[in-house]
Structures are given as C-alpha cells and as structure tokens.
Amino acid sequence: MFTSFKEMPVWQKAVGIAETIQQCTDYLPRKEDYGFTSQIRRASLSISANIAEAYGRHHTLDKINFYYIARGSLTEKQSHLEYGRRVNYITDEDARNLDDSLLKLLHELNRIIVKLKDPK
After folding, report:
1. What are the start-end ranges of the H helices in 26-91?
2. Number of other residues whose CB lies within 10 A of the CB of residue 103
3. Reduced to 3 states, what is the DSSP secondary structure of residue 86?
C-alpha cells in the first residue's frame, strides 16, 4: 500500500505527462496564452490532481468518482493535442508520443476503476 499519492505510478505518469505538455507548449504563440495554452495545461494538471484527490478520499465511491474525473480530463487533453497537431502548434511526433502515453494512462485508470468496483 502506498503511504502517499506521490508513490503511485499512475500519479507519477500523469505528472510526467503534464511536464511534457508544459515543455511542448512553451513556444506557442503568445496570443494563445489565455486560450489553448492555458486550457491544455489545466487539463494536464487536472489528471494528476484528481488522482491525488482520489487517493485522499476514504469512501470507495468517492475514489471512483475522482478517477472518472481524471479520465475525463485525460480525454479532454487528447482532444487538445489533436487540435494542436491540426493547427501545427504541436508536431505530429510530439502529439503521437503524448497520445500513446495518454492511452497507457487511460488503461491504468480503467484498471483502477474496475478493481475498486469489484475488489474480489
């Protein structure tokens, strides 16, 4: 059992993805600072924040709900990445690598949710 959410591999991966997003968006046009850049960064942070919040909850249904919210933020970020790729804000390679990482994280979140729903 983990003594902190920071020890959870799923949280560590989520934070790593957020760090990568930060780096990929450092060079976006300044006109996007309060639009696309802000939105994709917030969605990135939301994933790890909701995983941490799930860890801190006592009741299983609360935990599951926060994992669902993390999953929603993850798919939101996938949509942002696709838009960023289409308008050439993010390279095809960066978008593909990030999407691959997000898909792996999505599968991990789904496994956690299934395990919490049926702890047998």
Report:
1. 36-56, 60-86
2. 12
3. helix
Please state, as a whole number, how many other Cβ atoms lie within 10 Å of the Cβ of residue 108.
Answer: 17
Specify the 3-state DSSP secondary structure of 78: helix
What mean pLDDT do residues 39-45 have? 90
Any idea what the CATH number is for the domain that residue 35 is in?
Answer: 1.20.1440.60
> What residues make up the domain containing 103?
5-117
Residue of higher predicted confidence among 2 and 77: 77
Return d(Cα 87, Cα 66) in angstroms, integer. Answer: 32
Give the CA count within 13 Å in the CB-facing half-sphere of 22.
8
Mean pLDDT over 74-97 rounds to 94
Encoded amino acid at 53, one letter: E
| Count of the separate structural domains present in the chain | 1
* Residue 1: other Cβ atoms inside 10 A: 3
SS3 call for 58: coil
- Closest by Cα among 40, 42, 55, 52 to 98: 40
- pTM value surpassing 0.70: yes
